[in-house]
Amino acid sequence: MSAPEWGFDSIRDVVTAVLVLVAALMCFAAGVGLLRFPDVLSRLHAATKPQILGVIAIVADVAVSNPSLVTITLAVAIIFFQSLTAPVSAHMVGRAAYRTGHFRRDILVADEFRGHD
């Protein structure tokens, strides 16, 4: 009995499985963080950081499993625009939560924005 040969398709399947697993774990971590963290500012961290990594892993998986110029170009565009919009939207939600007082002041480590609003 000989050892199995690892072809390009087998390696691509392993990479695809790893990327999907990473994406699922990141999305799960984001969901748990949204449920467990106490206020809006903490939840924003949980919602943006792992979620964008999960989206990047899924998009990279699509590009690996279907390596064409159109797919790779679209994947790069999706990653680029998600990387731009997720932090900006989280910043705006955090700023709105701060201005309306929908956060816990007692768990802030530093409040550089106090008095500047």
UniProtKB/TrEMBL annotation:
TM annotation in the entry: 14-35, 55-81
Which InterPro entries does this chain map to? PhaG_MnhG_YufB
Keywords, A to Z?
Answer: Membrane, Transmembrane, Transmembrane helix
Family named by the database record? Belongs to the CPA3 antiporters (TC 2.A.63) subunit G family.
Q: What is this protein called?
A: Monovalent cation/H(+) antiporter subunit G
